[in-house]
Amino acid sequence: MGLALAPPAVADPDFIAQALPFVLTEDAVPPPDPSNRWQGNPVAEALGRSLFLDPRLSRSGELSCASCHVTGGRLVPNESRPADADRQFRTVMPVAGAAFQDFFFWDGRKDSLWSQALAPLETPSEHGLTRTEVAARLVRWHGNEVAALTGAALPSVEDLEALPPASPVGTRAERRAWRALDPAARARVTELFVLTGKLIAAFEAGLPPPRSAWDRILTAAQRDASVLAALPAPARRGFDLFTGRARCATCHLGPLFTDGDFHNTGLSDPRGGPPDPGRQAALMELLGDEFNCLGPWSDAAPGACPGLRYISLSMERALGTFRTPSLRGVSERSPLMHAGQFENLRAALHHYNRAPPGPHGRLIGKDTLSELLPLGLTQAELADLEAFLDLL
After folding, report:
1. Which domains does the chain have, with CATH numbers?
2. N or C end of the chain, less CB within 10 A?
3. pLDDT in tens, 250-285
4. Rounded to the nearest 5 degrees, what angle is found at the Cα of 210, between the Cα atoms of 206 and 211?
């Protein structure tokens, strides 16, 4: 009987060549955001960090941006915060590396980090403030830094705090109070409100996506082939499946493991409610948003906003679709998917293996709108996939 020899601990050049497009380098930087002139400004980034961590930017005085985006001192979403009705039953998305994306939230209803940062400030179940209150608090607690950064004279704290709680998207009374303000006051308040979002976004844009054991092993293997031996055999098989029969890399491609696009993967509402239309319901909201790339508060020239100008409005293309999340750090997140449909990776992988038709096709007389196909993977192959994802 011959001896069963272990495979040699040397690099497979073909494997490394296939893996390198999925490796995040240390010098990866996000593209500039033409709609935010403060991105890349170190002073703005420092002030944005203060705002990101400041719980005073909430009605309770206890909730900051970090409350949902930092867990245990790390930039891992705090999924313990309920995905309730005001958040459209959506789970928290990672903020580290978000600046590499073009659209934000699961349905892509925002097209910049700064516009995304503004939404929770006026959402009752999150920061719960009105626009006038955000402006007053920015000047009250950060006015000196804002004035030094912008070189502009700010409204007095007293004048801002004398304004009633008012917002164009608040309660009926808050909307009525907003309409009652003179146009100049509304413009001053909105300018400060927008600046708050742009400063937070300047900080967030500097948060790199997390590099992982996968990146370190593959980077080192380019110089020393023997390092590839540190890659567990199940994870290596899992990567082969990921880029092959499992079809994961169809959408989860590149160093961030996402195409940044929107896809229908046959997901139902976990509460048994009507099908969530996803991106389809967000398109008109995005196009009409005063804070989009083409809006009056954007710093971009119109020609710098192609993603918005050429956006597809096709129902079949958008109905029931959600943004492809990055898989970096996915093993540290729970629950998974836009409405927390799965408690862990194994449950999510079983869904992709089965490829159920989902609920959206029947809304327009089709069998399915899901892009998934049954994979026929064995339990051992699903375990290999999970082993690979655990490295990210």
Report:
1. 13-27+211-278+319-389 (1.10.760.10), 42-205 (1.10.760.10)
2. N
3. 999 999 999 999 999 999 988 788 899 999 999 999
4. 120
